[in-house]
Amino acid sequence: MTGSLIRKVLFASVVCSMLIMVGCSKMSGTYTDSGGAVSIDFKGSKAIVNVPPAISNQEMTYDINGNEVILHPPPNAAVTHAVVLTINSDGSLSGPPPYGALKKKG
Description:
Structural class: alpha+beta
Order of helices and strands: HEEEEEEEE
Distance between the termini: 51 Å
């Protein structure tokens, strides 16, 4: 193989690897506020959200965009707008009230 072809194959491999890594970005585990009332349990591509009294065990989908997690409630949910949480440098999450500061359990 020529040097040019090797560079093209290497470049394509790097790009494919990056796309796979971006597509696999998922959250995992349970995040709670300091009192334990508000919680988000990330399992695969779903998040189980508890924000008493309005939201109880609500399954939502989510996306990760940079340092943000965007929760998408289903159309029939009590809260129908997306919620944006920030992923902090220490791995905790922060969001608008009533979510506030959420730390990973365990």
